[in-house]
Write a structure and sequence with these properties.
By secondary structure, the chain is mostly beta strands. It has a single domain (15-280), classed as Sandwich (Jelly Rolls), CATH 2.60.120. The protein is 6% helix and 35% strand. Strands 4, 6, 7, 9, 14, 15, 16 and 18 form an eight-stranded antiparallel beta sheet that branches. A five-stranded antiparallel beta sheet has the order 5-8-17-10-13, with no helix packed on it. It has a three-stranded antiparallel beta sheet with strand order 1-2-3, with no helix packed on it. Strand 15 and strand 16 form a beta hairpin. The longest helix is centred in the last third of the chain and has 8 residues, at 227-234.
Length: 282
Amino acid sequence: MKKLALAISSVVIAASLASCDGGTQAPKTINLSYSSAPEKAETDSLAFPIDKDGYITIFDDSTFTGWRGYGKDRVPSKWVIEDGAIKFNGDGGGEAQAGDGGDLIFAHKFKNFELELEWKVAKGSNSGIFYLAQEIYSTDDEGNKRLEPIYISAPEAQVLDNENHPDAKLGVDGNRKSMSLYDMIPAEPQNSKPFGEWNKAKIMVYKGTVIHGQNDKNVVEYHLWTQQWTDMLQASKFSEKAWPLAFELLNNVGGEKREGYIGLQDHGDDVWFRNIRVKILD
């Protein structure tokens, strides 16, 4: 694997410096546009803290500011904040669970970026981290509009209890274990921690190069919009023959602007995410 450093210098635009009542300087903030509802342009704006290294905190440990459900204008009730972390309250039913769930997205589209977060799972849990995601609607033969699943437009970094979830034994060469590019590239080395313990994840997207990091090790590298990417799709569950719409969307992931949402997966199981921050690499 090429050892391309995950840290690439960035120029952060539109950062603003505020002042407190006592005359001391408050933390720097950056304004990010966001889409408050599906199919709505990013016409609203919110301020988020940004540190001296250019990392923007997109989850403040206590509110869902900037977040909403995929295909929704609100956060589904199964997503809660618990002990400074975003938690999905699963019912053990996998993707077939009942109730007010669904995937969660941060409703600002990023292009070139570095995402850092921590995650942990309950015993036997499955989830994932999506990036460059779009909200895709299709129309059936009767003219009915339908929201397509997030994973047909976005690569997925797998989040999994490798020891207790059967998905770890499926796929090819471990390409469904944690922080693998789901169903395409296995994370190597596979260094995830057991259920109940926090793992560190890092995902970098920079002009087509993508790197997954897990617990301070680079474990996946690949290149979007290349023949390599197309060939991997053709060998996966998203092949042109097996799933034409998914193949079309993923082969052109990010759309014309090559940007998209960060998403957290509802797979029906308990999962936690915290310390979520993004650096813009432009």
